[in-house]
Design brief:
Radius of gyration of chain A: 15 Å
Order of helices and strands of chain A: EHEEEEHEEHE
CATH topology of the largest domain in chain A: Alpha-Beta Plaits
Pfam families (chain A): Fer4_11
Distance between the termini of chain B: 60 Å
Shape of chain A: globular
Number of helices of chain B: 25
Number of strands of chain A: 8
Keywords (chain A): 4Fe-4S, Electron transport, Iron, Iron-sulfur, Metal-binding, Repeat, Transport
Helix content of chain A: 10-25%
Structural class of chain B: alpha/beta
Chains: A alpha+beta (149), B alpha/beta (627), C alpha/beta (410)
Number of strands of chain B: 16
Protein name (chain A): Nitrate reductase
Strand order of the largest sheet of chain A: 1-8
CATH class of the largest domain in chain B: Alpha Beta
Number of domains of chain A: 2
Radius of gyration of chain B: 23 Å
CATH class of the largest domain in chain A: Alpha Beta
CATH architecture of the largest domain in chain A: 2-Layer Sandwich
Number of helices of chain A: 3
EC number (chain B): 1.2.7.4
Oligomer: heterotrimer
Shape of chain B: globular
GO molecular function (chain A): 4 iron, 4 sulfur cluster binding; metal ion binding
Amino acid sequence: MKRIIIDREKCDGCLNCNVACISAHQEGSNFYTVNLQGVDSETRNFIKFDSKTGYTPIFCRHCDEPECVLSCMSGALEKDPETGHVQYDETKCAACFMCVMNCPYGVLKPDTRTRTKLIKCDFCEDKKDGPSCVAACPKKAIEVKEVSL
Amino acid sequence: MNSNFSCKTCASADQKLETFISNLSQETSHHRVEGQSVKCGFGLQGICCRLCSNGPCRITPNGPKGVCGATADTIVARNFLRAVAAGSGCYIHIVENTALLLKKTAANKGLLKGKRALKKLSEIFEIKDADEYICAEKIADAVLADLYKPDYVKMELVEKMAYKPRFDRWKELGILPGGAKSEVFAGVVKTSTNLNSDPVNMYLHCLKLGISTGLYGLTLTNLLNDVILGEPSIRLAPVGLRVIDPDYINIMITGHQHSIFAYLQDRLIESDVIAKANAVGAKGFKLVGCTCVGQDLQLRGEHYQEIFNGHAGNNFTSEAILATGAIDAVLSEFNCSLPGIEPICDELKIKQICLDDVAKKANAELKPFVFEERAVQSDEIIDEIIDAYTARRGDIVLNMMPEHGNDDTLTGVSEGSLKDFLGGTWKPLIDLIVSGDIKGIAGVVGCSSLTAGGHDVLTVGLVKELIAKDILVLSAGCSSGGLENVGLMSPSAASLAGPKLRAVCESLGIPPVLNFGPCLAIGRLELVATELAEAIGVDLPQLPLVLSAPQWLEEQALADGAFGLALGLPLHLGLPPFVTGSPVAVQVFTQDMLNLTGGQLIIDDNAKTAAATLNEIIEKKRRELNI
Amino acid sequence: MKIVIIGASAAGITAAKTIKALDQATEVVVISKESIIHSRCMLHKYLDQERDEQSVSFVPQDFFEANAITWLKNTRVLGLNTEMKTLKTDGNQEISYDKLLIATGAAYFIPPVPGLREATNVYGFRDLKDAQLLDAECRTAKNAVVIGAGLVGMDAAVALLKRGLNVTVIEMMDGIMGLQLDEKSAQTYQTLFEGQGASFLLSEKVVSVDLDKAHRGHLIHLASGKTVPADFIVVAAGVRPSYDFLEGTAIQTNRGITVGDDMRTNIQDVYAAGDVTGLSGIWPNAMKQGKIAATNMLGGSALYTDRYALKNTANFYGLTTLSLGNINPEPEENCDVSIRQDHKNYQKIVSKDGVILGVIFQGDIRNTGFWQYLIKNKINVSGIDKSIFDLSYADFYGVDKETGEYHYAV
């Protein structure tokens, strides 16, 4: 499967991955026009920083053994057998957020406005150029690579 | 030199140039575009603030305000005003130097080549002395006196220079500028940490800076230069890399201050200097035009046919010009003198001398121009360049491109030469506009950039769209450099125009894109617009006239843009000026400005749709004028 | 090989799916008393009419066909012969198996209160059947009473309130969701429910229920002497594992079917997973057990080592809460309790000697998944020089350069 491989040493914390992610999920927007202030401006990837650990890019791994899928009582989260990516079906979700609780890396979150949806990386599956965050990273700290399951 | 540069160069509207650059062994800006292609989203939107140690703060969903409480609107406005203040400062520096030069030239009873410009300025300034030197000195003094006023004392020449309806509107809005230098100062202060947080106040300040920039930095710089160097006159001239003649010692000039070269360019064609060149095997000296000062020289080329070989290209052609190997020295006095020329100069042993420390290049010799020492300085420069020529020629492989550019670019267009061409009156042009043979006028101005599709891509694309819609294009700035090299300023380009404009151009033997020269000549466009408005009896916003800086590059362009908005003109930009993160900025520039000055910002990086929008505006204004 | 799975909820379905994913050739038979596969965690969405029978499913409608699984629905298993490896159904069918997974879950429990068990209008809230019966009651009733203010009781209360009923919740403890919340976070939810019209009778015990002629309970008597009128009653007082049909077998039980880490019972080729094991009452753990059992039935060697079950989330009226571990320590435990709150959030972290024992995050629960790892693995965080509230996975960040998977660098 394809996974976003992280080289944390290269991350400068510019948050372009956040901007790209928000834009990718805000229809019709681009880097100039993306609204970064709205309550619906949700990023699916995170950069944490402290003096000891430096910048740490926290991105959904689409895990080999996805705890989120194993938490889902509505069938909304499924690991696609073809792509290996964990996809989320908003229409099935019952918003129990067991997945948020069980993601060992704290990647998942409820939507801020309604808390009825999960905000989760979809690997920009609808975009032909692949994940928007990867394209937006000026340092190539994140790159898509093929990994064996 | 970094040898790991990208092998992919950016696109250029100038195909021959693109091929030339992609085959170079030197790295150019065109190569570096790829490595900088990933842009910072916060930077693009203007919502990063580095004004204090709590920052840098960026507007994000989790941080909708800076630590201090600054909103996106405040951060964007501060960043924008800072940029406009810097851009204004650049132009005010140019007009200040030019005025000082005129003053000294006049005091020394030096040669004043532009008698008509002198007369025109005397009339505007209401100076009635018979002696031209006294007039010139008084003119220079009046300009300098205004520039040096404090910000709380309004500049006196604004009312004399500006079109009355505009002046009245500016007065109503409270945006008449105080001393131009002080307004830059005030703008910078406003934008410092925890001072002004009112976006509207800051945008009004931008308009103030736009007025001082436009009337002084642009319009007056042109006219003062005309007095010293002679007025433009229309002629056909060669452009492009073909203008470089390797048989000569070639000096590329970059900058915006033509009068700094006034003495040198005359000296270079004196027989003893030519003899020096001959002695080392060259036929003599030639100046090769590049950037805006090259455009200025081209504009006044009628007076400098012997020394000036033609304009080779705009700012982002400068590296390619040097890479031909046939340039022996670069004399720079202002922007755009790209840092990127430095390693090429080092590699090709090209002598770099900076004549103004504001444009000091890292590896160049600094020789600030001193009027009183101009003779000695010029001879020193000549000797150094001869040494460079001797050291490098024979050693450096030439990489010429004689097929680049053309020999029939129409140049020398100005408010004066165009009116002369029309028979001393604007009536023929007005008649053509009224009849619809010329639907309207678009001033396509500003810079060249390597974004918005690539080098000059949007500029050329937009201009082709506009002329096809029978809109006459007047160009000023590095945009001209691109447009002329691709042949749009040659009379044969008439075939690309719409049927009506084409007929007009063919009957007059002119191209559909008229070359006013450097970005400073945006001031000349303002004079044309004002004279047309006066002749028709309307205010500027009513004219079927639009402005576009499709590939605006830098802070000066933003100050120019502020002038355009103050004039009440629709202004198109290809890419947003780092303001889209602020809803207030977007509202002010694209909507509210219509009620303030009549101006309006239009952002569109698509040539077709942008041209369609500008066309609609022109047609709307025509309807409102009942024509 | 033929594997029979009894039960079609989290553990059973996950096991069936896992088997088919690992080995298409294995024959799988699922036996369930239900005729519609559904997620019990979504029953309140059925009762409040947000979802119908189809949309409370957690598998695609064609799950069995697509995976070539035989499904015996509406079928109860009555008995089991582990020597013959057969089982008998209420349809008098005898079904053989090579391996058997018991995933029959649990059933709600009605306390032995006079009148309560006898009443015909007393319901649990466990299966779709219960929700369907309650739905019918909602059409005529005005007053609903929920006994038990745990997560299930509150789920029922949300739905009944949305149906426009007067809802009274009776709870023995002094706060709602007493296993998941502390006083403060419970009070916040209680206020939200009260805002929607719910009444709470806390620290109250039901002592008897008066029945009418039709044997419907209509008046509830409390230990305090108070009475509560009811048109119907929902009992949410806990569940008991369902394994009556094991009677006569040697399968070991102890408040659930006893299993090892590999989900095997003491009898060869018989496995158990999910609530029937009594290991954990929450959905994710049941799924995991089902997956592990399936893997092992096919000869794999997966172990249920992550037995952590003191975890839950709640999401009522847009207020989300994460609750993990020991969140109400006794004073003699000498724990450190850190609390941080603002007008929208309440956060509580219980720790001892640098080890986190429990957390409550009420309000913003973004990116809180890592806490569970810290708690269940007893990670000592005292060496990390920052506020305990600022911890994140970044403090334990580890990436495998080859696979890109994360791990905990501790």
